[in-house]
Amino acid sequence: MYWLKRNLPRLVIAPSFGVIAWFVYGFIFWTIYISFTNSKLLPKYEFWGIDQYFRLWSMPRWHVAVENLFIFTILFIILCVFIGIVLAILLDQKIRAEGFLRTIYLYPMALSFIVTGTAWRWILNPSLGIEKFAQDIGFETFTFDWLVTPGMSIYTIVIAGVWQSSGFIMAIFLAGLRSVDDEIIKAAKIDGAGIVSVYTKIILPMMRPVFMSAIVILVHLAIKSYDLVIALTAGGPGISSDMPAVFMTQMAFHRSEIGLASASAIMMFLTVSAIVVPYLYSELKREDDRK
Amino acid sequence: MTENNIQTYKELEKSSNTKKFIYRWILFIILGIFALYYITPLYVMIVTSFKTMEEIRQGNLFSLPGSLNLTSWDVAWNGQGFSAGDVYLKTYFWNSVKLVVPAVIISTILGAINGYALTKWRFKWDSYIFLLFLFGTFIPYQAILLPMSRTLGFMGISNSIYGLILVHVVYGLCFTTLFCRNYYISISDEIVKAARIDGAGFFKIFFKIMLPISAPILVVTIIWQFTMIWNDFLFGATFTFGEEAPIQVALNNMVLTSSSVKRYNVDMAAAIIAGFPTLIVYVLAGKYFIRGLTAGSVKG
């Protein structure tokens, strides 16, 4: 009885712990192991070395996917952070209707990537969408057919992604700005600093942890981006807007290449880990320092 | 101060006021332009859903419909009435409801108890256990899709709502535990200590002391889980097909497979239906929604 009382907290955690250990970490190890085998439709447990990784990196399609991920991630981060900061700073000027504007900036975040993709697929549609609108109001030679142009369709994913996520980055930065002590700003103004230099020299450098969080979240969103690609371009035209997440699903569930699919999943996992582990380490260290 | 000085001071003040006025206007114009950027797609979706295909072909993206035509909403929800290959949302919307309710409740309860046990009953390795949960919020799900689909097969719950409930509870657990742990850690240990001295046990303290003050974090957690699960596509598309699919999968199938003739009005009505529940939650409880997002982002 005493034993039960003493160990109750551990017993309560145990099922969840077991579930996570098995379904998260156990599964990741399984996927790692399968990536070292020659599994096709069904898993084979015979060790095959790192050939799947060589195969993966010799596939032009994988290179397209990685290149697209790179373009998407860079643009997605730059645009979201830029728009997020600008909006947060402007909203922080004690303006009327702040709550209303914030609601408008943030609502896309409540919509799924499938809904977002469906809406933008229609807006960017070359024959009836924005192109037709521009032609109707007089710009007769205006064309906007990125959605169906290989090499350009990846940028339509950027447009829709930024629309969906930038409001969220605004919210993070606004929360960060609100936590800055007003006295610092007042003191700087008394010392004759202009509003611009107050922000660029004092406040933004103070928000380094916020930048870090924002970038980690955006990279993480970008690497996982699957739904948006499927709904907007389905990886097309051809494979021109393919991404690693789409590649993985294709290989795993349509091409019966589960060894190769596992290798690509592990590449994604390693990329995320390379960014998240140092971030978590510094976050937890910061928390420890505060204690 | 001489008369002259007062004069210049007043002029200075006046010019600084006009300057302020101009700044304010520039500020509002920029904010307004961004507001237009965010709101326009929603406007386009709404007006398109009420147009006939004829109006869509003749007008442009932004033109208003001639009348409030509800046909496309009816088609999006009920289908066209023929049996083979008819795509509609009705069945799948209810699938998602049947999925979301249990998955949100189970994962939230487990998260709250875990967060409580990890912060108020410290034991050896507890911070490492928390780290396992924390890292679990970041993993790309592609790394678990294949073994998960095999496991669901072994358990005999592949292609069923039950399978999806399990998947969402398991991977939602990391988020719910994280949220609740971060909330409970900010609550003073003294209350718990006092209750323990009075002889209250683990569950008594949880139900009598912790739960009554947990409303804010429970709302945040429920909204987060609701949004995540309702908007999920990857798990739904991987583990279910046909009649068992959740709403986002159905929406995507509808848009992609709608025969040879594109029905943008039906697509837009369907997209609004699929986005409606989360949008309503956001409008009604936006404050908590934002808190969840920032709590989920500034981790640790």
Protein model, in words:
- The complex is a heterodimer of chains A (291) and B (300).
- Chain A is mainly α and 291 residues long.
- Chain A has one domain (58-290): MetI-like fold (Orthogonal Bundle), CATH 1.10.3720.10.
- In chain A, 73% of the residues lie in helices and 0% in strands.
- Chain A contains 13 helices and no strands.
- In chain A, helix 3 (60-91) packs parallel to helix 7 (153-178).
- Chain A is flat, with a radius of gyration of 24 Å.
- The mean pLDDT of chain A is 88.
- Chain B is mainly α and 300 residues long.
- Chain B folds into two domains: 3-69, no CATH class; 90-297, MetI-like (MetI-like fold, Orthogonal Bundle), CATH 1.10.3720.10.
- Chain B has helices at 3-49, 53-58, 71-78, 90-120, 126-136, 142-154, 161-184, 189-197, 202-210, 215-231, 234-239, 247-257, 264-297.
- In chain B, helix 3 (71-78) packs across helix 13 (264-297) and helix 7 (161-184) runs antiparallel to helix 10 (215-231).
- The radius of gyration of chain B is 27 Å and the shape is flat.
- The model of chain B has no long low-confidence stretch (mean pLDDT 86).
- Chains A and B meet through helix 1, helix 3, helix 4, helix 5 and helix 6 of A and helix 1, helix 4, helix 5, helix 6 and helix 7 of B.
CATH superfamily descriptor of chain A: MetI-like
Largest sheet composition of chain B: none
Can you tell me the residue ranges of chain B where pLDDT is under 50 for at least 5 consecutive residues? none
Which chain pair shows the most residues in contact?
A: A-B, 96 and 88 residues
Taken in chain order, the helices and strands of chain A follow as: HHHHHHHHHHHHH
- Could you please say which CATH topology of the largest domain in chain B applies here? MetI-like fold
Q: Kindly report how far apart the N and C termini of chain B lie.
A: 59 Å
Subunit arrangement of the protein: heterodimer
CATH topology of chain A, what is it called? MetI-like fold
Order of helices and strands of chain B: HHHHHHHHHHHHH
CATH class of the largest domain in chain B: Mainly Alpha
**Which whole number gives the mean pLDDT of chain B?**
86
What is the total number of structural domains of chain B? 2
> How many separate helices of chain A?
13
**Biggest pleated sheet of chain A:** none
Over the alpha carbons, how many angstroms does the gyration radius of chain B reach?
27 Å
